[in-house]
C-alpha cells in the first residue's frame, strides 16, 4: 500500500528567513555589479583598458550583424571584454578581447567567416 505524503509545512519564521536570505543574495549581486562598473570606469580613466566602444565599432566594421551583449570581466589576472554578436545570417558569435590591449583572444561559434564584410 502506498501512503500519500503530507504536504510540507513551513513555519512563518522559516518563510521569513528564506525570503530574507533571497533578498540579501539579490542585494549582494547588485552590489557586485555596481562595484564591477566602478572598477571598469577606474581602469578606463587610468588608461589600463581600451574603451569598449572601440571594440564594438571594430566588430561592426568587420562583420555584418549586430552586437547583442557586452560584458567586462576582471575576475582573472587578465581583464577581459566578452562580446556576443548576432550575424546577419542569425549565427551567434562570442568574441573575447584582452581589455588592456584590445587584442582578440578567441572567438566561439560558427558563421563568422560568412559574416565578414568584403
List keywords for this structure.
single chain; alpha+beta; 118 residues; 4-stranded antiparallel beta sheet; 2 domains
Description:
- It is a single chain.
- The chain has 2 domains: 10-48; 49-115, Roll (Nuclear Transport Factor 2, Chain: A).
- 42% of the residues lie in helices and 25% in strands.
- It is built from 3 helices and 4 strands.
- It has helices at residues 12-45, 52-62, 112-115; strands spanning 65-73, 80-87, 92-98, 104-108.
- The protein has a 4-stranded antiparallel β-sheet with strand order 1-2-3-4.
- Strand 2 (80-87) and strand 3 (92-98) form a beta hairpin.
- The termini are far apart.
- Mean pLDDT is 76; it is low at 27-32.
Write out the strand line-up for the largest beta sheet, numbering strands in chain order: 1-2-3-4
How many whole angstroms does the radius of gyration measure?
22 Å
> Main sheet, how many strands, which sense, barrel?
4 strands, antiparallel
- Helix percent reads 40-55%
Distance between the first and last residues' Cα: 73 Å
CATH topology of the largest domain: Nuclear Transport Factor 2, Chain: A
Level-2 CATH architecture of the largest domain: Roll
Number of domain units: 2
Shape: flat
Strand content: 15-25%
Class per helix and strand makeup: alpha+beta
Residue-averaged pLDDT: 76
Give the count of helical stretches.
3
Parts with pLDDT < 50 across at least 5 consecutive residues? 27-32
Question: How many β strands by DSSP?
Answer: 4
The ordered H/E elements are HHEEEEH
* The CATH class of the largest domain: Alpha Beta
